[in-house]
């Protein structure tokens, strides 16, 4: 692995995060209206509005606000939420955890099941198993996430069968002093089922189809023929086949995570899941700039760092692949 390339990519990653945060800062302030307009429309007097504008630094020139924003960001201070009157991180942190608890397991399950299914049908080209393995995941995957959520909510939620709760993280009487203990309750799993199923059913098809195509391609390469005539056990051949065929699947991980994040905004709205997507919508409606820019910055950083991790993971999965032109 080329150490120089890793350093270069690390510097580039940091620069991209900085550039993204800068674009987000100025783009958000191009939005019409702000929190002060919202307060004014709610009946606050002009004196109160001006005091709040000065208190929050919104009366300063834009470049001064930007420099203050960068300074606070470097020191770990993301500012105060204009809506909740609390530090932004106190508002965003629990919502970020709730979103990660929903999204990360869904992505992992999608890729474990999808890769396994793709490997199976990739070794059965032309069979009924292959056709069924392509049609069923594709049928679910082409349904928009929000529509799949509505279908599951109607069928399994408060509609026909009424098997699962229709929304929320847990029931009101489940909350305790320790926020993390909520995730270990049966009530949480009951509320978790429908949004998790929505993300899983609509996300399995992509790794399935990519893995299937890659398996078919790698199976015809010379080194697999060599293993076959050498007498390598079938299980060992399949494991090596899956390892070499997994590169396109790994490449698609950041894209899949980006897709599932964008779709999760509507999923959190449908199921009233208290994550970053729901917080983003609520903050946008009242122009809570500090919260909005931190949410976008966190999501952008996750995507950029994910792409960086995939680049490095390439050489681990397949030693034939060289990153950065190294040898």
Structural notes for this entry:
This protein is mostly helical and 327 residues long. The protein has a domain at 88-285: MetI-like fold, CATH 1.10.3720. Helix content is 71%, strand content 0%. It contains 15 helices and no strands. α13 (253-271) runs antiparallel to α15 (289-317) and α14 (276-285) runs antiparallel to α15. It is globular. The N and C termini lie close together (8 Å). The mean pLDDT is 82.
Short structural description:
This protein is an all-alpha fold and 327 residues long. The protein contains 15 helices and no strands.
Helix residue percentage: over 70%
**Name of the CATH first level of the domain at 88-285:** Mainly Alpha
Our estimate of the beta-strand percent is under 5%
Q: What is the 3D form?
A: globular
| Radius of gyration, CA atoms, in whole angstroms | 24 Å
Q: Give the overall average pLDDT.
A: 82
Helix/strand order, N-terminal first:
HHHHHHHHHHHHHHH
């Amino acid at each position: 692995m080329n150490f120089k390339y890793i350093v270069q990519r690390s510097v580039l990653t940091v620069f991209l995060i900085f550039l993204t945060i800068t674009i987000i800062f100025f783009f958000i302030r191009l939005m019409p209206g702000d929190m002060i307009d919202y307060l004014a429309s709610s009946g606050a007097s002009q004196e109160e509005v001006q005091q709040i504008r000065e208190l929050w630094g919104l009366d300063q020139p834009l470049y001064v606000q930007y420099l203050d924003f960068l300074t606070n960001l470097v020191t770990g201070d993301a500012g105060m939420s204009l809506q909740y009157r609390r530090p932004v991180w106190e508002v965003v942190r629990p919502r970020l955890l709730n979103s990660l608890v929903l999204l990360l397991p869904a992505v992992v399950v999608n890729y474990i099941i999808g890769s396994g299914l793709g490997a199976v049908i990739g070794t059965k080209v032309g069979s009924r198993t292959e056709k069924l393995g392509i049609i069923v995941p594709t049928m679910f995957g082409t349904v928009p996430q929000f529509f799949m959520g509505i279908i599951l909510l109607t069928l399994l939620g408060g509609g026909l069968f009424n098997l699962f709760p229709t929304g929320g993280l847990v029931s009101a009487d489940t909350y305790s002093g320790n926020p993390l203990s909520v995730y270990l309750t049966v009530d949480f799993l009951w509320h978790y089922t429908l949004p998790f199923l929505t993300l899983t059913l609509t996300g399995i098809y992509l790794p399935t189809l990519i893995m299937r195509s890659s398996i078919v391609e790698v199976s015809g390469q010379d080194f697999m023929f060599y293993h076959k005539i050498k007498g390598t056990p079938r299980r060992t051949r399949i494991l090596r086949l899956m390892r070499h065929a997994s590169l396109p699947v790994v490449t698609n991980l950041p894209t899949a995570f980006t897709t599932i994040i964008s779709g999760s905004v509507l999923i959190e709205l449908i199921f009233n899941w208290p994550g970053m997507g729901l917080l983003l919508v609520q903050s946008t409606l009242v122009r809570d700039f500090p919260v909005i820019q931190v949410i976008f910055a966190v999501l952008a950083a996750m995507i950029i760092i994910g792409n960086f991790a995939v680049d490095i993971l390439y050489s681990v999965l397949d030693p034939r692949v060289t990153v950065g032109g190294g040898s």
